[in-house]
Amino acid sequence: MSQGTERHLVLARLRDEIRRIEHRPARREGFVACGLAGVDAVLPGGGFPRGALAHLAGGPASGKTAVALALFAALAPGDLAAYVDGRGELYPPAAAARGVDLARLLVVRPALAGRHAAPRGGPTGKPGAGPPDPVRAALWAAEALLGSGAFAAVAVDVPMPRKLEGADAIARRLQAAAEKGGAVGLWLGPGKGLRVPAAIRVELVVEGERIVARRAVGGGDHRAA
């Protein structure tokens, strides 16, 4: 399957989902609290900013998915959320147990995840060492969802390769899409790798049964549990 054909199919599926919404919501502004005191306490305005990306940084089992699901559960009734599950690890019953309305949640999983490598060439269309097909498809999906205006919050969990040609341009496009659509964008990833131009970066760890959040500001750290 060619790169252009694959992209067309990914975006077509997303457009079909978005068309199911009767009207485009008004421009969203302000902040959305996730309801986890240890996270909201370190966020400016007490919540995640709308129309911007926030980077949830941490290793495996650091609470990134839990924070994303808590935010989804805290959305206003009728708001839609989307989760770009590039790892194929999101467990819907666990999301429901955390209070997420599955009827208002769109989970996007690249169909080719882990099955074969892609032809070379990244999302920018330039030849070279591009990401695998599922990574490229997931990034296209994330951009479409963030910019659609249909979703109040979009979480993006994509395993990124060590080197990604055009990474800076991809990151800027994701941020621009979040600004256009007014969504709360959550980029879930380790501290290393692709660094999106996030409005805020929250480092997460789990201590005992608590998620501990730390936000770096001007060389200092604010910490709450």
Concise summary:
31% of the residues lie in helices and 23% in strands. The strands form two sheets. It has an eight-stranded mixed β-sheet, with helices on both faces. A two-stranded antiparallel ribbon has the order 1-2.
N→C terminal distance = 48 Å
Question: How many independent structural domains?
Answer: 1
Gross CATH architecture: 3-Layer(aba) Sandwich
CATH class: Alpha Beta
Mean pLDDT score: 79
* Helix run count: 6
Poorly predicted tracts of residues: 112-132, 217-225
The amount of helix comes to 25-40%
The CATH homologous superfamily is called: P-loop containing nucleotide triphosphate hydrolases
From the helix content, strand content and strand pairing, which structural class follows?
alpha/beta
Percentage of β-strand residues: 15-25%
Overall shape: it is globular
Q: What is the CATH topology descriptor?
A: Rossmann fold
Secondary structure tally: strands: 10
Radius of gyration: 17 Å
Strand order across the biggest sheet? 5-4-6-7-3-8-9-10
Biggest β-sheet: count, sense, barrel?
Answer: 8 strands, mixed
Order of helices and strands: HEHEEHEHEHEHEEEE
